[in-house]
Design goal:
This protein is of the alpha/beta class. Helices cover about 45% and strands about 20% of the residues.
Amino acid sequence: MNLDIAAIRTFVAAVDLQGFARAARKLHRSPGAISLQLKSLEERVGCELFQKSGRQQMLTPAGEVLLGYARRLLQINDEAYLAMGGLARGGEVSFGMPQDFAQTLLPQTLARFAGAHPAVSIGIKVGRSVELTQAVVAGDLDLALAFGVSTADSAPAVGQLAVRWFANPDVSWRRHDPVPLLILDQPCTFRQAAIEALDQANIPWRIAMSSGSVSAVWAAAEAGLGVTARTRLNAPTSVSDVGDALGLPSMSPVSIFLLKSNAVINLTADHLELVIREALGEIIA
């Protein structure tokens, strides 16, 4: 029995975009055609893949099992297609990410993608989430990861990471003094989260250092200049989660979005997107 790759692609798009209508827009098909294609796939595998939960279509246990295989099938299919035709033509693809991912996601992504596409030129931009989002919208980047960026038309978050208070374990702070914050310049999702959490807890704070560099913030934390609100990504070994010890308030997880330019159809960017999703899943897990 052979599975229809086109139906598999539709299935994965419906899951990733959390809806048949969004999948229809991405694949340039009508919602009715998407429903028929997924119904045909269910008949082929002999199981229902989706079940209604309110207005949403949720995966059944069988759908969850198929999803893992579906991603692998698409990755192999796309690699084979590009290996037979796309590699000879080369091409370009650009990808942006916050500095937090540069030492974790970037090496994994480049190694996997370059191995399958040695003739493709990859442009990498490491920067702030706001800058990366603007670059994707302007068509200057094909893909970008961004923290806490969402619009009504954007795809759902691809994951979440816990936000914690980090500092040198020996940092000195008396509870009645303002919390010395080490934060990025505005606009910054983590800066806003830290200030809002402290304000809601009626804990006074002061900005001990503000910078445009994540590395500078971590260096200040290592030096014991204050506390910073970040995820564990790229946290130096010399800093610790000091939230409980210092009695600091908890913060909500930060969402991660994978933004994609709609400027042109780029099959190479489509495959890079799959590689990024796979690598990101491993990091979040």
